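Checklist before submission:
- one chain only
- standard amino acids only
- sequence pasted in full

Submission:
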Amino acid sequence: MSANQPLWLRAVLRAERAVGTRVESAVRTDTYFDVVSRLNRLHGQVNRAAEDLSRRWLHLFNLPAGSDVRRMREQLSRIERRLNLLADEVTEVVP
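Returned file contents:
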């Protein structure tokens, strides 16, 4: 470390060196990867459960859920593609 560095920067670099090596060694272990994969799986399960619950409540009050809107957008996209194809066919037939 150079003497002209601010005191706060020297403190941060020293702390980073002390903590960083331990963190780096911890994230390279099999245990870390097991925990991360389990947490990701749990996160997905919680999200699906929350989405299912909110979908049920919205449908109970006859309101559209996000999945309903997504499905309608997909249908609309298919219709738009089909209309574009039909328009291209019409322009090819009619000079």
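Reviewer check: The two ends are 78 Å apart (CA to CA).
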